Amino acid sequence: MNRRPPQPMPVIAAASQVLAHTPGLCRHGSKPSRELPKDPQVKAAFLAALRTFDEAVGYAPHQAYIGPLNPRDLPPRPWVGKSLPGATRFTPAGEIMPETEFLGLMASMEQFGLLVLDREVASQAASDLQQHPLAKQLDLGRLAAAAGDAEAAANEHGSIALHVDRDLFAAGFRHADDLDASLAAPVILENLAAKATGTLAVLHLLADHDIDPASIDYVISCSEEGVGDRYQRGGGNMGKAIAEAAGLSEASGADVKNFCAAPVPALTVAGSLVSAGVFRNIVVVGGGSLAKLGMKFQGHLKHGLPVLEDVLGGSAALVTADDGKSPRMRLDAVGRHRVRSGSSNPQIMEALAMEPLDQLGLKTTDIDDFATELHSPEITEPQGSGNVAERNYKTIAALAARRGDIGREDIPRFMEERGMPGFAPTQGHLASALCYLPHAVDRLTSGPASRVHMIAKGSLFLGRMTQASDGMSLLLERNETS
User: Fold this and answer.
1) Which of 78, 202, 465, 481 lies deepest, with the highest CB count within 10 Å?
2) What is the DSSP letter of 217?
3) Distances (CA, A) of 120 to 113, 155, 183, 434, 448
4) Res. 167 pLDDT band, cuts 50 70 90
5) DSSP secondary structure string, 422-438?
């Protein structure tokens, strides 16, 4: 027997997605920052393989990420080297921002004098951002104050130099403390990049969906950065920092950390708070992970590809009380990876994809879209990581056949109809279903879908505290009254 959903039912009323094209920042990704200094020839090849902004805008998976192209409508691969007809920077779901503007955006949100922009770069960024649709929401005065002797700042002890347009010097970024590794310049830069991309996503969420900033009660960040200092490494509250930067004057905030799986727990926590009547309007936001820029560049260079991990992502969603039209969050059937569940992919998918359906008496064929780890295979395959999305859909389809929902001969069709190609940059929290949220909201309101299953997995073993994995899933349904 199906259990009745809790009341009041929370819904996801809107979602936004943004990308910042940051080729100059790629060298500060964790892998490039370690490998490029070892070999000048590799560094030269790396810089030569960085894409232009127009190439990034025209890249089909990026258009799927920011909304106008459903991932099922992606053209046949290869996607690299081909510009998608009609590709645009701005879409109803968000945008792709060029690097000079993004440096200006970071400067407009940096409060401690750590980022010093070259004066010409600052002037260009200010001029460009003044024409931005969100210009009124940006602190361009702070951007102007960040202009100065960037070269001197970059040469200070502990500072790093930032670039745009492959190798054009643009800024100096200072450390915040001589001895605190958590306040070193590379770490603070990661944090600021996450704040800026997350804030940009929130600003688009508000502006594009006519949401009153003062109506937001709480902000939950699910980003991958580790804000803190030597006493509280990973202390957090990027949520509150983004709330301030986005002008959410009535909001407080907090962070949810769970490696790549964090967005679905964050959405579930937000929905639970709304359902309990604690808050009415909550924004869940994920900023980009600078550490993962250029993470798989060696495989890309080996296969003659450009450096494809050259964008920072951002995502934001509004979780609110039932409005009679937006997709409902089924909090009575949240999937979770128990300690006893096992760590193989079939065991994880049994816990996350199948058990919640059993609780509601549903079959796998009652789900229109399974959204899981949607990393772009064009990024992951050259480095030997395989097609992550396809691997997961094979597992889900095999479990569906084992349950008798489909015949084994129907597995390929099940994967094609209820799965989709991976299209997200390899910033795991964004790829773990969160990137599909604007499409899910659209298909569950104006489109043909009735149910979307959001499935996220997390690699807890990366923290060296456990060998376990983790994950959570959340079922979204078309509103009964829509």
Assistant:
1) 202
2) -
3) 18, 18, 28, 37, 50
4) confident
5) --B-S-HHHHBTGGGHH
What is the rounded average pLDDT of the residues 446-473?
95
Q: State the maximum Cα–Cα separation within the chain, in Å, rounded to a whole number.
A: 69
Answer yes or no: are the C-beta atoms of 415 and 376 closer than 8 Å: no
- 106-122 pLDDT, tens digit each: 999 999 999 999 999 99
- d(Cα 89, Cα 379) in Å, to the nearest integer? 21
Mean confidence (pLDDT) of the chain: 96
Q: Can you count the helices (H) and strands (E) in the chain?
A: 19, 16
HEC string of 225-266 equals: CCCCCCCCCCCCCHHHHHHHHCCCCCCEEEECCECECCHHHH
Q: How far is CA 389 from CA 56, 313, 377, 416, in A?
A: 22, 18, 8, 12
- Per DSSP, 82 falls in state -
Asked whether the beta carbons of 457 and 468 are under 8 A apart, the reply is: no
Directed axis angle between helix 411-418 and helix 388-403, to 10°? 120
The structure tokens 């949607």 sit at 374
CA–CA separation, 354 and 341 (whole Å): 12
How sure is the predictor about 343, in pLDDT bands with cuts at 50, 70 and 90?
confident
Helices marked H in 276-328: 297-302
Strands 451-458 and 10-21 come out as: unpaired
The first and second tokens of residue 338, run together, are 């128990």
Question: For position 81, what pLDDT does the model report?
Answer: 93
Residue 415 phi/psi, 5-degree rounding, is -65, -40
Residue 267: how many CB atoms within 10 A of its CB?
29
In tens, the pLDDT along 249-292 reads: 999 999 999 999 999 999 999 999 999 999 999 999 999 999 99
Close Cβ partners of 396 (under 8 Å, ≥ 6 residues apart): 349, 353, 364, 370, 372, 418, 419
Q: For residue 147, count other CB atoms closer than 10 A to its CB.
A: 20
Q: Please tell me whether residue 92 adopts helix, strand or coil conformation.
A: coil
Per DSSP, helices labelled H in 164-237 are: 185-208
Question: Which distant-in-sequence residues (6+ apart) come within 8 Å of 391 by Cβ?
Answer: 345
331's tokens:
């909090």
Tell me what pLDDT residue 3 has.
Answer: 54
107: number of CA atoms within 13 Å, CB side? 33
pLDDT at site 166? 82
Any idea what the Cα angle at residue 286 is, between residues 176 and 122, rounded to 5°? 50
pLDDT band at residue 1 under the 50/70/90 scheme: very low
pLDDT of residue 9: 87
CB distance 12 to 441 below 8 Å: yes
